[in-house]
């Protein structure tokens, strides 16, 4: 890319603002008041796999988590707070009706899982996190190694891409609120696979009781993919052919899982441009191999393997996670199992806002906190040795961003 990375983000947003946001008030006006997404989507952080692009998901439709290999860990309040907080918020607060877990072709996380030596301490000596994270898919790996041992490595990877999705679907049912929703028919779990080599998308039901009203929601995903295939994928071989061989994104982006905030949409990021993590309130926890393996594995992979040159952390207006952080009573019992524990990452920002802005009303304090929380995440990024090194050597730039969907503004800053 020739353009300066930050200028690229700004021009992407301007394009979105002029051609989409300003032209569809009927879509964006109601979304200013709140989100009521049908889907919760788990997608891989891979820059070629944004579900807003490949499935045509529109702002407001899908609360979206993105991590390495779209994995869902089992219910565990110490190890998987990032995943748990998002599932809890999506199911209990937003009341989504479908959870989709999407695997994909040529996934680096799946390759790491299949090639890692059992019992060996680390795949590559400098990998601190990736192996520990993809371990979530170990049951699938065992299955593939037993049932497909005659297949070559790449073919085993293809099978594992789907079997790992099945492990995530099983893990989803270890969350009491998910299990309850599935049993009473208000929630459906769907597995999916995006094959960017052959331009295919398939879905399957989790082996659970028969679905209720969610059949249309699955059909909607298929139609979305067909539109993408015909209108984009088939028309731009010059973009998609090289991406079949690998990704070399400029950006690593942290964005909120909020259905109104997909950076592929709001910044017009194209397939291959941005390795993208989405979680509650786009928070980056500090270097911690027990508590933040999801985040750590993604930063490590983006910086050490993909060699991104710019990490952008984007906050947004009216963020539910930021509201939860500001309204939570210190010392009071948690209403939720996970959300409060997760948003505590930015507790230092909350203290700062409560002291410096105590005269402001709650909503205004939230607006300040949206940006201050980004600053805490930028500081936390520097606790990762590979990030610190990259910044010191000038190869890596850290950028804060804020998307204001109420006023149609996007701002960036550096620390
Ligand atoms: Zn992947
Ligand atoms: Zn948010």
From TrEMBL:
One of its GO terms (biological process) is carbon utilization. It comes from the Eukaryota. Reversible hydration of carbon dioxide. It holds the Pfam family Pro_CA. This is carbonic anhydrase. Its cofactor is Zn(2+). Belongs to the beta-class carbonic anhydrase family. GO terms for molecular function: carbonate dehydratase activity; zinc ion binding.
């Amino acid at each position: 890319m020739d353009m300066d990375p930050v200028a690229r983000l700004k021009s992407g947003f301007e394009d979105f603002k002029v051609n989409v946001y300003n032209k569809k008030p009927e879509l964006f006006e109601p979304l200013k008041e709140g989100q009521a997404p049908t889907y919760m989507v788990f997608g891989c952080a891979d820059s070629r796999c944004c579900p807003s692009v490949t499935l045509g998901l529109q702002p407001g439709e899908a609360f979206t988590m993105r991590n390495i290999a779209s994995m869902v860990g089992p219910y565990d309040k110490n190890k998987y707070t990032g995943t748990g907080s998002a599932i809890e918020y999506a199911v209990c607060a937003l009341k989504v009706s479908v959870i989709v877990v999407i695997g994909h072709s040529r996934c680096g996380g799946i390759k790491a899982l299949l090639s890692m030596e059992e019992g060996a301490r680390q795949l590559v000596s400098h990998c601190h996190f990736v192996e520990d994270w993809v371990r979530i898919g170990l049951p699938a790996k065992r299955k593939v190694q037993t049932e497909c041992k005659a297949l070559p490595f790449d073919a085993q990877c293809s099978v594992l891409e789907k079997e790992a999705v099945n492990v995530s679907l099983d893990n989803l049912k270890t969350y009491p609120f998910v299990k309850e929703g599935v049993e009473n028919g208000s929630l459906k779990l769907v597995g999916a696979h995006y094959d960017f080599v052959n331009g295919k998308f398939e879905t399957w039901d989790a082996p659970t009781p028969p679905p209720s009203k969610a059949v249309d929601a699955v059909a909607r995903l298929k139609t979305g993919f067909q539109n993408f295939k015909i209108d984009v994928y088939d028309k731009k071989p010059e973009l998609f052919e090289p991406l079949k061989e690998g990704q070399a994104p400029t950006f690593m982006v942290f964005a909120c899982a909020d259905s109104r905030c997909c950076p592929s949409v709001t910044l017009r990021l194209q397939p291959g441009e941005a390795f993208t993590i989405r979680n509650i309130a786009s928070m980056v926890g500090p270097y911690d191999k027990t508590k933040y393996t999801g985040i750590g594995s993604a930063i490590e992979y983006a910086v050490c393997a993909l060699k991104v040159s710019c990490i952008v952390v984007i906050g947004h207006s009216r963020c539910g996670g930021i509201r939860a952080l500001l309204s939570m009573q210190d010392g009071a019992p948690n209403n939720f199992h996970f959300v409060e524990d997760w948003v505590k990452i930015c507790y230092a920002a909350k203290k700062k806002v409560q002291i410096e802005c105590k005269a402001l009303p709650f909503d205004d304090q939230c607006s300040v906190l949206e940006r201050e929380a980004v600053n805490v995440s930028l500081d936390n990024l520097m606790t990762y040795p590979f990030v610190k090194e990259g910044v010191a050597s000038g190869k890596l730039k850290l950028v804060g961003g804020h998307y204001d969907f109420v006023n149609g503004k996007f701002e960036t800053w550096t620390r």
